[in-house]
C-alpha cells in the first residue's frame, strides 16, 4: 500500500489544486517544503475538490496558508471545500477565520 501524500498543482492565473490526504501523517513533510509551492500571486484560488481526507492537522495547515498569504498581501479563495473540513472548522470554532475565503 502506498503512503498517502499531498499534491499541490498550479493550474493557471492563480488557480491551484490541492489533492490527496491532508492529515497528520502528510502535513509536516509537505509544510517543510512550502518554499517550493507557496503561491506568490496577488489572488489565489485553491480548489479542494480532490482531497481524499482532511483532519485537524490539515485544517491547521490551511489556516497557516491563509495567514502566510495574507501577510504577503495575497487574497485566498477556497473552492469546493469538503463538508468534512467545514465540520472541523465549525467544531474548532475557527470557521470565522476562513469564512470570507470560502466560495
UniProtKB/TrEMBL annotation:
UniProt-listed CDD domains: STAS_anti-anti-sigma_factors
Record-given protein name: STAS domain-containing protein
InterPro entries reported in the protein's UniProt record: MlaB-like_STAS, MlaB_ABC_Transporter, STAS_dom, STAS_dom_sf
Pfam families for the chain: STAS_2
PANTHER family assigned to the protein according to its UniProt record, in alphabetical order: BLR2341 PROTEIN (PTHR35849), INTERMEMBRANE PHOSPHOLIPID TRANSPORT SYSTEM BINDING PROTEIN MLAB (PTHR35849:SF1)
Entry superkingdom: Bacteria
Lineage of the species this protein comes from: Bacteria, Pseudomonadati, Pseudomonadota, Gammaproteobacteria, Vibrionales
Gene3D superfamilies reported for this sequence: STAS domain (3.30.750.24)
Residue intervals of the STAS domain: 18-103
